[in-house]
Fold each of these.
Amino acid sequence: MTATYLFTPEGLAALTRHAATDTLFAFDLDGTLAPIVADYSAAQLDEPVRTALGRLVKLAKVAVITGRSRKDALTILGLEPHLLVGNHGAEWPAREGARDRQQTGLCSKWRDRLSAMLGQVQGVEIEFKGESVSLHYRKADDTEKALALINVAIEKLEPGPKRIGGKFVVNLLPMEALTKGEALVAAMASFGLKRAIFSGDDLTDEEVFKLKNDAVFGIHIGKDDQTAAPYYLNNQSELLGLLNAMVGILETERNVQDTA
Ligand SMILES: [Mg+2]
């Protein structure tokens, strides 16, 4: 099945049918709400996107589900959505005070093992994120060789991690950690909402699109023949148009209710 471009009469009609004040509006962060930048630590929301997202937050429940830590993501967002889930679905707000010790303990053990095995490999960076560990190899001169060495090192971890690929990054999570798909379903349940709209651009977001759940309206950021999402936008710069469309639909619905 190929995805349909969202900004067509059919696409917008489908969005309008699905978007309501009792829909959960969920988004990935990097490459979706925020443009991808070369320096990972310099990512931020464009001001018009932040403003539009702020309006959406006042009209309906908004969740951000990201591979970053919650702390990192909050800084980039510059505003608080109703729910922010970090570490690819594994890090939830309730755990902030006492972060899941078993998960973080295991990840810190992996970090030490990986540092011993990969510490000397050129261009490989090990990022410990509490509930997950990310191995970045974008800066390697030979990215294929770096990935091969990363794979060998991962094989030696005990117990073995759940592995999620990305753009020049391999993410490792404990087997029992929630995926983004499981996190979205849990988020809908926690708000008591039966429908969601989710936008994302990366491999980890396919965990949501693959749910094949009619209640979840999937939008892939970027045209991609491999995505399981039914709809797509051409690139991240169209996200502002999407947010404005969502706000417009909800404001119209509210006005109709006010005059009824
Ligand atoms: Mg992304």
Amino acid sequence: MNKKTIWITGASSGIGEATALKFAKEGWKVIVSARRVELLDKLSVDENIFSYPLDVTDSDKAKEVFKKIIDDHGQVDLCIFSSGTYERKSEKELDVQNIKHVIEVNFLGVINCVSAVEKYYKEKNNGHIAVVSSPVGYRGLPKSSGYTPSKAALNNFTQGIYFDFKKFNVRVTLITPGFIKTALTDKNEFKMPFLKSTNYAADQIYNGLIKKNNFEIIFPLPIKIIYKLIQILPNKLYNYLISKSVNR
Ligand SMILES: NC(=O)c1ccc[n+]([C@@H]2O[C@H](COP(=O)([O-])OP(=O)(O)OC[C@H]3O[C@@H](n4cnc5c(N)ncnc54)[C@H](OP(=O)(O)O)[C@@H]3O)[C@@H](O)[C@H]2O)c1
């Protein structure tokens, strides 16, 4: 049987890594990309996992790597773009260099990957692109000068391309996890509500992509409910509640 193939970026650790292992366990052929080659090599000990190192900020390289994946494996059915960065210390100030870097990785890095697969998917006239962004992108937050805006842009971009790719029978999904325990969130000094494991996230992502057909995969349930409310709160109430929680 011809195995289905998935390409996952940001797969060397955290949510991307757990999702790669989940898809491999479910019998998919899994192509993993990130910068840390040694971590990708460890993953590719699994016979279903194949390492293709990539820095997503390099748009030419993203195209080159995707071409090599198609040359080597013949097809890609699903892409999950999960690369991302966050430096809590630099977020507290308007550090322009940090903001540029975060936008470069979290926003433009994903666009580089979508751009790399665009022609292939549109010609094939089917396929599936999933973007790992964040619910924090839905409204502004204090002391988040780069990360939250980068995810706001990514949420908006992903919804925009949903319409553009739909015409070509290509599905686009936005993944917005709540707090998941990874190296990225280990930098947070505050207690993270409803914190979940990477395996939990991988299961939610797999089920959302393969067993359901919603545009957004948002989890866990309390975060889903809170963010649905947050999106419709008037500015006056939202600003009051956030100011109050910051001043506590
Ligand atoms: N953890 C959470 O609570 C949470 C919640 C909402 C959304 N997210 C999002 O989930 C995604 C994964 O984050 P995580 O929590 O799993 O953190 P993580 O373990 O730090 O994973 C980040 C991944 O992105 C890769 N990456 C970073 N810069 C890259 C670059 N320039 N080129 C290619 N890959 C790059 C890293 O690999 P290399 O360093 O090897 O390149 C790593 O594999 C991110 O987009 C994050 O914003 C996380």
Amino acid sequence: MFFQHNFYAGPGALPNSVLAKIEKELRSYQNSGMSIMEFSHRSPQVVDVINDTVARFKKYLKLDDAWELILLQGGGSMQFLMAPYNLSKPGERIDYIDTGYWTQRAIHEAKDCERDLQIIADGAADKYHVLPDLEGIDTNTGARYLHICSNNTVVGTQWHEFPKVDTPLVVDASSDLLAREFDLSKVNMLYAHAQKNVGLAGITVVAVRKSALLQPESLPDMLCYQPHIDKLSNYHTPPVFSIYVTNLMQKWLEEEIGGVEAIAEINLQKAKHLYDVIDSSKSFECPVKISDRSTMNVVFTTGDDARDQAFIDYCAERHIIGVAGHRTHKGLRASLYNAVTPEDVTALVACIEGFDAT
Ligand SMILES: Cc1ncc(COP(=O)(O)O)c(C=O)c1O
């Protein structure tokens, strides 16, 4: 089958111009006669790519000298574990807002860290289709930090503004890093894997305030941030190709799109286009509260599993892929990451309208 429009939730679409650049340079990086994949991770060519990628992330996130930014392996999931180890001490309290699947995974991975993990609010009563209201909840608990997920990939909610609490935040931004601007004034750490909006699976971006870093208890060096900081994200062999593609994505975002502010506006328009057509259709509905709806992952359904599957098949016949909901959630989901174009959304909208008319 031939697919033209990719709405997968991750890994997600890559821009055509980035793919073209990879193709062009694959066998001879910058006319060197060698592929970037063949260079040593200590070569000036690779060190330059790593340093440039780190510098650009710092620039896009507007990080000053109070911050460190490193590229690690292990995906978003490894940070569920590394954050507690590096930002808190054994026995200390860590708070979570449970907004569904990925925050639950974060809590699960941290359960053996010997910390006091507490869920201060959750969206279970609303099947996670509404972000918890913190009104009346005591958020001043003395926790070392409060963990949130800025965009909930599975259920389709997004914190358009981070919760206003006194406890410093640790934010899993795996599905909206560089897709919108963040206010990091109350944030101690923000992490995100690359494979949705910013590049390829293999690297995870970790931005952490220097003042929040603790000397971890006896831990293997690989699990401590400090060696990775000291060695400038080159403590051990990094996934060079992933970093290289991420660097191309950054250049695409800056030079072809106009930066994070510009893509944020495009992403808003894409999401509005799709939500509007879902809301006005007779076959589909979006279960997510309007003010909490994600600009990244549009979750919707016909309300009937067989009919949802019929829509997935209808899309495939029209060269559209990736619209099935998460396996735990079912239904339908279209992910509108940075590389998904307004034209892709228009193609999906035409499918929704066509299916609606059948
Ligand atoms: C918000 C969020 N956090 C964490 C993860 C887990 O990331 P990884 O598969 O890189 O470990 C995902 C995966 O899609 C996610 O959407």
Amino acid sequence: MSQDDRWERLTQVGPGTPGGNYMRYFWHPVAALVELDKEPVIPVTLLGEKLVLFRGEDGNIGLVSERCPHRGVSLGMGFIEGNGLRCAYHAWKYDTAGRCVDTPAEPADSTLKNRISLKSYPVQVMTGMVWAYLGKAPIPLLPRFEYLVREDCEHDVGISRVPCNWLQCAENNVDPYHIEFMHMMYTNHVHKRKGMPPVQQRKHAKIDFEVFRFGIVKKRLWEGDSEDSEEWTVGHPVLFPGTAIVPYPVPGWVQGQIRVPVDDTHTNIYWVNSRQVAPGATPRKEVPLWENPWTDANGKYDPAMINAQDMMAMITQGPITDHSAENLGTSDRGLVMYRRALLQQLEKVERGEDPFGVVRDPAENTPWIDIPTERHVNYSLAGAQASATYEIPKLEKAGETA
Ligand code: FES
Ligand SMILES: [Fe+2]
């Protein structure tokens, strides 16, 4: 395998590509449920496939190919009638399984519709998100990770739509040093220029990574901390293909950062906050959605925003970064390990085996899947700016009292 083959294998997500075949072993969020409340017909792209997500009046959700088989108009411009989706052009109607059920301009005895269908994919709703599976049968289970399904937690979901390849987004998760340099050193440079107080500056003593059933656990030890620190003894995971579980410095709060490949040059990042409520309190059932942009109101990167810093680092590498032009050091060994493990997963798929993270055993999925996640972190970025809308998920803005 040449180097170029390796990068194509890791970055391509379209149908029939090795990376695309790998990605099709997983369920991916395709929209937030509240988006369907606002608009029941949503054009979406996932793994390079143009699709339409729609919800009929019976509440059933369909995910079908976007192009109307009649004469190619986008069904993303269609409308709901009853439990189906009608094309805007000649009102051919489709059900959630993609079957054509009506061709109203044709004679009443026409059998044309019986020969027409759309590609359709299974969907499931979990934690306020609609998840889709674009792969082949047998369909794996939608994994019930603890942060997604604990009943004593409430959730909110942020979304960022970033114009670059999924891999350079996900690699940010296996790069511990960027906390020390971008989120601390660079933030303090920005803060000094803005006349803001500094955030804590810490220094890594060592880092480590471990491959496990669902991906890679990332561990760090800060200089001055004991080796009993949970950041070192437990660490936190990157769930393959590209989800980080990041602890908040608040007990019982974690954030899942799910990187969903839209196509080769676009990625949707779902920031799923899970917050344990006080004992005896009833968690809010609704899952609000908030936008988490990487630019400020003027369309510019704001270097003081933590999430925007991360997205700046992802996006400015280019639509698909030239990985062959990188010069990696020992501090990048998390990336090296991640890429190697991903390539091994692609090879498994080529041998017909399940890659890491595919769940088929209901016992493993019940009541939830435990994954190693540190509950205490020994650093604070307090004082750094959250992004413009990052405050929205806070409880008081969601109609709760904190
Ligand atoms: S193009 Fe869709 S019904 Fe004619
Ligand atoms: Fe970061």
